[in-house]
Design goal:
Elements (H helix, E strand, L loop, with lengths): L4 E5 L13 H8 L4 E5 L13 E2 L9 E2 L1 H15 L5 E4 L8 H7 L4 E5 L5 E2 L1 H7 L2 E3 L9 H13 L9 H5 L18 E2 L2 E2 L9 H19 L1 H6 L1
Parallel strand pairs: 1-2, 1-6, 4-7, 5-6, 5-8
Antiparallel strand pairs: 3-4, 9-10
Helix pairs in contact: 2-4
């Protein structure tokens, strides 16, 4: 499978270097398992102020991202990539981003990712150029950079060789439709609370059964809607 390439359209490209330098995902980028390129729409403007936004028609608060700089940025990206990678936009109007979607995305050659800002993006750009939309949840961020960073983190960690143990991703919450089970480490007793005996038994069959039952119990307690969905 080819290593994915990510092209991020953002007016704040400085927010992304930590993603490719730190932690599990940073190691994946350093190993060349994926590449990240940031493109600033301000670089594709022609006025002295490098304007990328304007007041909304119809009045109201906030500003709206201009379509033309975004189109020029997208054209430059497509010319540089030489392919038709999908343009993904994180927006409240998209379907909820789920682990199954990330599994599918991780099998592709990457994507172009649009970071929205201000009050929104000119709808004409969205209608003509955006291929896929996703929503992280029912909350509002100041801009799309954090949302895109979350998507990239969740995507890259699913790539082969990204994690030290491939089973780590398989056992994560949501992979089986359930939350992950609780985990314990040393010491065996902490503040008078002991590690469950089954985890000390060495019986891997019983341990596996216990973890599965705990996953079901945790899901029923904290996210019962996942059980109803399944």
């Amino acid at each position: 499978m080819p290593h994915p390439r990510f092209d991020v359209i953002t007016i704040f490209p400085d927010q992304f270097p930590p993603l490719v330098e730190l932690g599990v995902v940073g190691r994946a980028f350093k190993k060349g398992l994926a590449t990240l390129h940031c493109w600033n729409p301000r670089d594709f403007t022609t006025d002295p102020h490098r304007t990328v936004d304007d007041r909304p028609y119809g009045g109201g608060p906030g500003m709206v991202m201009l379509a033309e700089p975004l189109v020029k940025t997208l054209q430059a990206i497509r010319a540089d990539r030489g392919d038709q990678a999908p343009l993904i936009f994180l927006t409240p109007h998209g379907p909820l981003l789920r682990q199954a979607s990330l599994r599918s995305l991780s099998q592709t050659e990457g994507a172009i990712l649009l970071c929205g800002r201000y009050e929104g993006v000119d709808q004409r750009f969205i209608d003509s150029y955006v291929d896929q939309t996703y929503c992280l949840g029912d909350f509002v961020l100041s801009g799309g950079e954090l949302a895109v960073a979350c998507l990239l983190d969740a995507w890259v960690r699913l790539l082969p060789e990204a994690l030290n143990h491939a089973e780590s991703a398989v056992q994560d919450s949501f992979e089986s439709g359930l939350l992950d089970c609780p985990h314990y480490t040393r010491p065996e007793v902490f503040e008078n609370k002991a590690v469950p005996d089954v985890l000390l038994s060495g019986n891997h069959g019983k341990i596996s059964d216990w973890r599965f039952e705990q996953s079901k119990l945790y899901t029923e307690r904290f996210r019962p809607e996942l059980l109803n969905k399944n």
